[in-house]
User: What shape does this take?
Amino acid sequence: MSIFNLTLSDPSTFILTGIIGLEASHIWISIPFSTFYIIGLLGNFTVLFVVGKDQTLHKPMYLLLCMLALTDIGTSTSVVPKALCIFWFNLNTITVGGCLTQMFFLHGVSMMHSAVLVTMAFDRYVAICNPLRYTAILTNTRIAKIGLVGLIRAVLLILPLPLLLRSVPFCANHIIQNTYCDHMAVAKTSCGDITVNRTYGLVMAFVVIMLDLTLIALSYGLIIRAILRISSKKAHQKALSTCTAHICVMLMSYPPFLFSTLTHRFGQGIAPQVHIILANLYFLLPPMLNPIIYGAKTKELREKMGKYTCRW
Assistant: This one.
């Protein structure tokens, strides 16, 4: 049973079109989709396994990597399996309750992902600017509490989206031009006034993202100031190298999200297939690349992953 109850006036199903204009190529498009998804699952589950198995990795930084891995698994799994069902079996219908449920988890996990990135920026700030107090400031318990706060924030801010949509009538032509149920795509199928839905979704997304980006920028501003005070060039490079992986992950996460959010509302001139492909890549590429980036840039994790991989 869906977690959302629906009124009798709502249609029973939505139709997800897949990638408009490229229906004949769906089977070929599914190859990179499924490949990226499987690689992402393997990489993120490997990070979870290695960190969980090795007691020496039970540290705040690696707990944050586990949180990042869980959000990556959550975002890709919210979207890709249904997309592959459309590509492979033409199963393009989804119940209204299922659609709202997918939308809730998709946007909720994405917001949790942003909270994890903010916490990782703070972790790097403490590690570089207050290294002697790092273990006192960032304990495993404190990281767990921060993660719980991020989860509560995501649930409280995202829950109104499906609840607001539940209260509006949907048109007979309930076709969603995408492979998944995005908030604005679902709202546009309504015959009623969606001003509140549109305003809340836009304001909530930008307030949260701008707040998170401001906190990240503040952390990195303090990091840069601390680095500039270091006289040793080698120490400069070492300090910067600890931030490289986090910066790469942010560059893969925030720009695509902002692009997708803006084009849903203001991108009438953009070809639908371009928007759909780019929006889906946001849920495919970061989950696949994040464990690779952190595995390559974090020596201790790389060595432990190599150790357990060789045992297999």
Remarks:
- The longest strand covers residues 13-16.
- DSSP finds twelve helices and three strands in the chain.
- The beta strands are 13-16, 93-95, 175-176.
